[in-house]
Write a structure and sequence with these properties.
Molybdenum Cofactor Biosythetic Enzyme, Chain A, Alpha-Beta Plaits, Maf protein, alpha/beta, single chain
Length: 417
């Protein structure tokens, strides 16, 4: 029995993770699932396919934490060393599980495929380990005790990991260590606020000892804010989070665009549909990215009237009716041209709301007057025109374009909510 478990660690295994070829998406999912049991993950560790390094890592972590969950390295190839490292860390040999081997053979037979000899490696486990069946793949996981800590080994492919986590590991943890303090969670997604300004306005809500605890992450202009409240009962935890969430909604009313889905376009489609509004887009530097974000939402056809990607000056004039003299006088990246693009999109589509984007995405093309990262947004709402300037950090081209697409859709939200 594990008793009352409160702290844990996650290990992601694979040379490809250390090389940066793929991100570690598994550890975050595992940590969120364990948090629902009141188990806090204190460490994320990434280890390559070195048996010796992995053995030391697993032994050291199991000596410090009651629960260690790792993913990856239990496939059929020689670089899948997790089972060997776990056995060495536990001080036990590997043993063949005849039932698992038979299951593997039957799995391949059902698909009219011959099992390769290398797949037999997946039927070997540390002596005394408890096997966790894989319902969606061919790599069973296992649990084994190492120096007082329980090591749970899950597959690396995310869909296999998640299925085994939910189907096998979490139920076992609930029955073995019980439910810790009740946890309640609330998330908010915000736009139009730098992380530093958010921190200033949040104040002591972000103190490490606060309950609910508040965490924030930033990505391409979007802030993801998570409230986590702990109490002896689910009702108590929910009450703590609900009280802080009410205050949060009031303090950040202008910036919150969603409480459930981080996709900006999805949130905007919901809002426009509820208001019965129609939207048109006119894009230059974003090259259709704003339209792509908008059409991620099912039902976008209810609100998205039309869109234009007018990258050249000639296209701005031919497709949207922008006066060429306006472009010559002010330049394509200007308030005047942005408003003319929005006006043209609204008139040609019949939409009552239109937003236009024109800017310098880089890495070339910037000037002292119009540097890389400068973007102008034009807005037409019920025939009234306005323009907004943004100067994004001169980072990479992809990020500037995504920043701009997010801001464009958020400008619409702020004007129609």
């Amino acid at each position: 029995m594990l008793g009352e478990v409160r702290k844990a660690a996650c290990v992601a295994i694979g040379d490809e993770l250390l090389a940066g070829d793929y991100p570690d998406s598994n550890s975050g999912a595992i940590a969120q699932a364990l948090a629902e049991l009141g188990i806090e993950v204190e460490r994320f560790v990434v280890v390559g396919d070195s048996k010796e390094n992995l053995e030391r890592t697993l032994y050291d972590l199991c000596a410090r934490y009651q629960v260690v969950v790792c993913s990856g390295g239990i496939g059929p190839t020689l670089d899948d060393v997790t089972r060997d490292a776990a056995a060495a860390a536990a001080g036990v040999p590997l043993e063949l599980d005849a039932k698992v081997l038979e299951w593997l053979r039957e799995s391949y037979a059902r698909r009219n495929r011959k099992m390769a000899l290398s797949n037999e490696r997946q039927a070997w486990f540390p002596s005394g380990a408890q096997v966790m069946p894989n319902a969606v793949g061919t790599a069973p996981g296992f649990r084994v005790w190492i120096d007082g800590g329980m090591l749970a080994v899950l597959p690396g492919p995310p869909h296999e990991m998640r299925d085994m986590l939910q189907r096998e590991l979490l139920p076992w943890l609930r029955s073995t260590c019980g439910q810790g303090p009740a946890l309640a969670t609330q998330r908010f997604y915000l736009l139009g606020l730098p992380e530093s300004n958010f921190s200033d306005r949040a104040g002591d809500w972000m103190a490490r000892g606060a309950n609910p605890l508040m965490g924030v992450t930033a990505h391409t202009g979007i802030l993801k804010v998570t409230l986590r409240g702990r109490a002896e009962s689910p009702e108590g935890a929910q009450a703590l989070v609900a009280a802080r969430a009410a205050e949060f909604r009031e303090r950040f009313a202008a910036e919150i665009y969603s409480e459930d889905d981080p996709r900006v376009g999805v949130a905007l489609v919901r809002l426009l549909a509820s208001k019965g509004r129609k939207l048109a887009l006119a894009e230059s530097c974003t090259g259709g990215l704003a339209a792509e974000l908008l059409t991620e939402a099912a039902g976008a056809s209810q609100v998205f009237q039309a869109g234009w990607v007018t990258y050249s000056n000639e296209a701005k004039s031919a497709c949207l009716g922008v006066d060429p003299a306006l472009i010559v006088r002010h330049g394509a990246v200007s308030a005047e041209v942005a408003k003319a693009m929005a006006q043209g999109a609204a008139q040609r589509s019949g939409a009552d709301v239109a937003v236009a984007i024109t800017g310098v995405a880089g890495p070339d093309g910037g000037t002292p007057e119009k540097p890389v990262g400068l973007v102008w947004f034009g807005l037409s709402v019920g025939g009234e025109l306005s323009a907004v300037e943004q100067r994004f950090p001169p980072v990479d081209r992809t990020s500037i374009r995504r920043y701009a697409a997010h801001v464009a859709l958020d400008l619409v939200r702020r004007h129609v909510r």
